[in-house]
Design a protein that fits this description.
The chain has 404 residues and is mostly helical. The protein contains 19 helices and two strands. The protein has one domain.
């Protein structure tokens, strides 16, 4: 039910964006810097149809594979989490990340701050680990609530608000997991719930929008009326305008991508968050999800990025560098199965991490770039696992049985 709600929200947002572009003959959202829309209505409608059909197939893939998630045979079949130690580990990790961000400014939206210790905190990135913790370690309510509050403070202090939607959906998922009889809804309610969420979300976004810019720029002067808030919120769920702009700017994107003549640049970008500066000194090159915006705003900072969806991403990548495109497909499949294996292994109850698996598929479809999806996201849980074993946070289920 929660998964369907998310898909419908994205579908509705894309349809609204497409209708706006057709009626007004111009871009909106992050693509509104383009002075004119050169594509005809048939192209816009056709591309909207491709993206919406893609969401249907994406959801179908999720439904087919969620009970038998792809996994590598070398991964352990089941891992037990020591909740008490997990609470302590997450507490220390969030506190360290919060202090580091407060002192250095690294990770704050709009900040170009750097630190020689950044790779350590990227290596122990709390955002991805917390996703698993939030679902699997809900027993000790007092410590759990404290960690949740600290995490929210940490993310808000960096100027991010999008995580609120993600965790609201997780609560939605867990509610229907506990109350399976309420999962079946009529088609009217299935459309009504996402629409109501968008309308209520627009009201809340008015306040979060102000808060976001107060954190980023230390001013309360950025305000939205309700309609502008609804439009802005819809744009956050729709990559459609930027996706369409790829076709209008395809030659410019190819030129910008190949300007620094860097072999497998999009693949190398995946290692930027993971490598210290003394091993990888040149990290300031622009990856594809930044170039999409640079093709519109030439002076945009190289540290920002925006999704265009997997189809536009692949069109641009293969048109710019076919070899990188082929390597990208191989790595995507391998990394997807790897993270899927981790999710399957950490499931103490069948299906309790289905929502994380859903977010993984959704991120691949919406974002596509390996750096954003895996290096800044799910890959953290894999390479931090040895440390969790050493600290006793994780242990194999067979090992636990032997002890008892």
């Amino acid at each position: 039910m929660a998964e369907k709600t998310v898909i419908i929200i994205y579908v509705l947002s894309h349809i609204v964006s497409a209708i706006y572009m057709i009626l007004n003959g111009k871009y909106l959202g992050e693509a509104k810097g383009i002075s004119y829309l050169s594509l005809d209505n048939f192209t816009i409608i056709s591309w909207l149809f491709v993206i919406l059909i893609g969401y249907i197939f994406m959801f179908g893939f999720y439904n087919i594979t969620r009970k038998n998630k792809p996994r590598f045979s070398f991964m352990p079949r089941s891992i037990k989490i020591n909740n008490k130690k997990a609470h302590r580990f997450i507490f220390i990790l969030i506190l360290a990340q919060l202090l580091f961000a407060s002192i250095t400014g690294v990770g704050k939206v709009g900040s170009n701050a750097t630190s020689s210790y950044s790779f350590i905190f990227s290596f122990f990135r709390v955002e991805s680990i917390f996703l698993f913790y939030y679902i699997c370690c809900r027993e000790n309510k007092r410590f759990y609530v404290l960690n949740c509050l600290l995490f929210y403070i940490y993310r808000l202090s960096l100027g991010w608000t999008g995580f609120i939607f993600q965790y609201a959906i997780i609560e939605f998922f867990l509610y229907f997991k506990r109350n399976p009889r309420r999962r079946r809804l009529s088609h009217i309610k299935l459309l009504l719930y996402p629409s109501v969420l968008l309308l209520l979300g627009a009201k809340l976004y008015q306040y979060f929008y102000q808060l976001k810019f107060f954190i980023r720029l230390n001013t309360w002067s950025f305000k939205l009326d309700y309609f502008d808030s609804l439009t802005a919120l819809t744009n956050r769920f729709s990559f459609f305008p930027l996706s369409v702009s790829v076709f209008q700017n395809i030659e410019s994107i190819k030129h910008l991508y190949n300007a620094d003549n860097m072999f497998l640049k999009e693949i190398i970008a995946m290692f930027r968050p993971l490598m210290p500066g003394f091993i990888m000194p040149y990290k300031s090159f622009r990856a594809m999800n930044n170039i999409f915006k640079q093709a519109i705003h030439y002076d945009i900072t190289p540290t920002t990025s925006s999704p265009v969806g997997i189809f536009s991403y692949l069109v641009a990548l293969f048109y710019s560098d076919i070899i990188t495109g082929i390597v990208w497909i191989i790595l995507l499949i391998s990394l997807f199965i790897l993270i899927s294996s981790v999710i399957k292994t950490l499931e103490e109850k069948s299906g309790n991490l289905d929502i994380v698996y859903f977010f993984l598929i959704l991120d691949v479809y919406n974002v596509a770039a390996l750096e954003q999806v895996f290096s800044y996201g799910y890959l953290t849980i894999f390479y931090i696992t040895p440390f969790l074993y050493l600290l006793g946070v994780l242990r194999n289920e067979k090992e636990r049985r032997n002890e008892t």
